[in-house]
Amino acid sequence: MNADGLQDTIVALLTGMRATLRTELTSVWLPLQLGIIAAxxxxxxxxxxxxxxxxxxxxxxxxxxxxLRLAVRxxxxxxxxxxxxxxxxxxxxxxxxxxxxxxxxxxxVAINLATAWVVIAIIASLIRxxxxxxxxxxxxxxxxxxxxxxxxxxxIAALDARGxxxxxxxxxxLLVLKTTALLLVALWAATGVAxxxxxRVQEVPDLTPSVQTLIGNLIRIAVTTVAVVIVLxxxxxxxxxxxxxxxxxxxxLGFGLQKIVSNLVSGIILLADKSIKPGDVIxxxxxxxxxxxxxxxxxxxxxxxxxxxxxxxxxxVTQRVxxxxxxxxxxxxxxxxxxxxxxxxxxxQAAAVAAALGVPQVLKExxxxxxxxxxxxxxxxxxxxxxxxxxxxxxxxxxxxxMLSLWDTFEREGVAMPKPGATRVILERAS
Length: 431
Prior knowledge:
Number of helices: 15
Strand content: 5-15%
Oligomer: single chain
Shape: elongated
Helix content: 55-70%
Distance between the termini: 77 Å
Order of helices and strands: HHHHHHHHEEHHHHEEEEHEEHEEHE
Number of domains: 4
Number of strands: 11
């Protein structure tokens, strides 16, 4: 449609609306219909509010499927609107039956708009994402309202009348609106499908966490890509028109996106070779932390002190990384302490081993060991080795528990430590 066609459409639309308004405004049926609609709305909404206050939705729907509960909640929330539709329908039927030449156009429009409102509200309630829910509800009801009042075709023609051509693709406001709305819905649906498939993959016990994460990322990329392609085809966009855009991306990769691509590829390599996987204990600089999440660009390392270190995946591939749990989940903690020369060395060693075994997290196999390492100027130096499984919590908790057990055991066994003493704790990887 050209500019002249758009102007003719708008003129015809305004002329028709002007004629309709002139006829309605000069008729007694206009205020009568408006009064009936307002009275029915007030009565129905008041009754609906009373019923909602007395109806315990949570107890009534306990144990129901989640989507059924959402639909019932939307139905109860719009009970007043349903009652208004019923009242207006009865009143309209009575008027048409008792009056020779009734004019109930506005009442019919109100009934249709309210019905569309309820249906769309129930359907949109199944969408848990609040933003997508609102977009779908507003878009659907706007289209329904325009269709009910007979303005949908004219609105579509007006939105499609003007546009710009870019690379052989004609972009109009109508195309932008359709593509945006469909993309939002498609991406929401793709996210739901991807999450469902990823949960199924995570429930497979034969897959390691790294393989589960790799498969999950590939599923999300594939489902999202398919959703976008379907939407573009649905709105009539020829994908071959994006050939120039693909070339631009290639040039961008060669100049400014090397690091992004490198991190993406490095993340796939890490997940494939299992050198680092979620749950591993690794050293990042002088920090020790747990791998909590492996994304497309970075890996999150939780240091258990309220901080998370986001390490680019490329660094794990190109630099040396200490993985404390690469081949097994055993960790050895080394505690150094001193005892006075007046304490029996063998008794001190036995007390230290007993103190370590008194902590639940310490493994009995491999067994703890205590060795005499040096004769100092004022005390004898010892080292206590003990093993733990890869902990879910902070290593400081285990270290503190063993040191407190050492203190209590030495007090009970009569082993004296020099004051002031020095105790160092060094974490070493299991051999």
